[in-house]
Every structure is written in C-alpha cells, then in structure tokens.
C-alpha cells in the first residue's frame, strides 16, 4: 500500500487570515526593504486591506518570493506561522458558489487546521507582475455614486 499523498505547506497570515503555499513555490523569504512596497497578498486577491477612513490592521513583516507562471513575484505577508506536512485527503474543495472567483485569485482548496481555515494558494496562477489597475472615470457631480454599487470586500 502506498503512503497517502502529502503536501508541504508554508503557513502565513495577513490580517489574521491564514494562507498556505506549497513550499516548492516559495523561492525566498526576506524582511521588507526600506522604501520598497511589495504587493500585498490581500490586494492580489481583490480584497481591500482596511475600510474607508480606517487603517489596515496588517503590517508587512515578511516578503515571500513566489514562483508564478512567468517569473518570480514578491508578496508581502504579516507573519509566518509554520511549515508542515499535510495529508492531501485533509484538504477540502471550495464551495461551488465561490470557486470561480477563488480559482482566478489562486485559491484552490481549504485546509481545516483545528478550528481555523487555511486558504491554499497556487501562485502559478499569478503573473509575475500585477495587471494594471483598471481606470474608471470619476463620477460627475450630477451623478452621485450609488451606495449599492459593487466594491472590493473589506476585512474590517
């Protein structure tokens, strides 16, 4: 009988949310350089880090160099928690309602680590450089913005 398939994960947190990277996709770990602003992990996932008028809770403590589909991309995280081996049978698929969005952002599974959910990321779905931010015209004073218009979700 062959042993169960396992995955070696680097666990990190951003704003208290746990994420896991296959260690094969992390090429280096460093502290942030002064004056250099690496891409924040939450921003890559399309989540607003902080809400309007309130500061973000997270602070960059480490920068992970991750292997993407076309190069290396530095990603800022708050804290590194652990490196461990996980049995693939313990991983849970994403709910069908969030799967399309999650797959676009590189989230491919969830691991329940005790009472905590860990979102597993696949940086091979990312580009080495972030796409240009979409530009949209500013609302005119004659057209007030609707409070029900879609926006990035906030973790606060």
Automatic annotation (TrEMBL):
Could you tell me where the Low complexity compositional bias lies?
Answer: 138-156
| Annotated spans, Disordered | 130-156
Q: Which residues cross the membrane?
A: none
Q: Which SUPFAM superfamilies match?
A: CheW-like
GO annotation, biological process: chemotaxis; signal transduction
Top-rank lineage group of the source organism? Bacteria
The name this protein carries in UniProt is: CheW-like domain-containing protein
Q: Which organism does this sequence originate in?
A: Candidatus Symbiobacter mobilis CR
């Amino acid at each position: 009988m062959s042993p169960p398939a396992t995955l070696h994960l680097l666990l990190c947190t951003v704003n208290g949310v746990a994420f896991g990277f296959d260690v094969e996709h992390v090429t280096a770990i460093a502290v942030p350089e002064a004056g250099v602003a690496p891409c924040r992990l939450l921003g890559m996932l399309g989540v607003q880090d902080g809400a309007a008028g309130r500061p973000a809770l997270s602070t960059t403590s480490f920068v992970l160099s991750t292997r993407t589909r076309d190069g290396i991309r530095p990603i800022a995280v708050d804290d590194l928690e652990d490196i461990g081996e996980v049995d693939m049978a313990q991983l849970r698929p994403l709910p069908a309602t969030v799967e399309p969005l999650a797959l676009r952002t590189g989230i491919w599974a969830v691991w329940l680590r005790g009472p905590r959910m860990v979102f597993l990321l696949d940086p091979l779905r990312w580009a080495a450089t972030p796409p240009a931010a979409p530009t949209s015209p500013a609302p005119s004073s004659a057209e007030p913005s609707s409070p029900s218009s879609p926006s990035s979700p906030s973790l606060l």
